[in-house]
Amino acid sequence: MFVDPQQIEKEQVFLNQIIAEKSVPNLPKGRNQNVVQGTLFVEGAMQVRIQDKKFKLKVKIRSGKAAEAYAQLKRRFNGVEAKCYPDTDKPEYAECFVGSLGVSEMLIDFGYAKASN
């Protein structure tokens, strides 16, 4: 697979703009006590791990985009410090953030996924 260096640079500029414009959303009270913080490891197009806890991202990968989504997640987020906020109703799902950048939002912004209900 050929990786275009100019495309990578454009994507990095785009991500930097997103980070500058967004902040971590206000989460419901009591949610912060459930936060899982540490080094994030990408295990799949929709799955990450922090410490010994695995989480599914709250997105639906678009058809034919799983490999690209996984590659982007791995390249951008694998091995970085992150916080994941498990869903109170379905704790296997979480919203994860690297700084102020939502991991799921990056997949949506790049067109690899759509928000799950």
List the topology elements.
Elements: H1 5-21, E1 36-42, E2 47-50, E3 53-57, E4 59-61, H2 66-77, E5 80-86, E6 93-98, E7 101-102, H3 103-109, E8 113-115
Parallel strand pairs: 3-6
Antiparallel strand pairs: 1-2, 1-5, 2-3, 4-8, 5-6, 6-7
Give keywords:
117 residues; alpha+beta; two-stranded antiparallel ribbon; 5-stranded mixed β-barrel
Describe the structure concisely for a colleague.
With about 120 residues, the chain is α+β, with helices and mostly antiparallel strands. It has helices spanning about 5-20, 65-75, 105-110, and strands at about 35-40, 45-50, 55, 60, 80-85, 95-100, 100, 115.
Average pLDDT across residues? 84
Task: Compute the number of strand runs.
Answer: 8
Number of alpha- plus pi-helical segments? 3
Give the low-pLDDT segments: none
The radius of gyration over CA amounts to 14 Å
Shape: globular
Give a verbal description of the structure:
By secondary structure, the protein is of the alpha+beta class. The protein has three helices and eight strands; from the N terminus they run αββββαβββαβ. The protein has a five-stranded mixed β-barrel. The radius of gyration is 14 Å and the shape is globular.
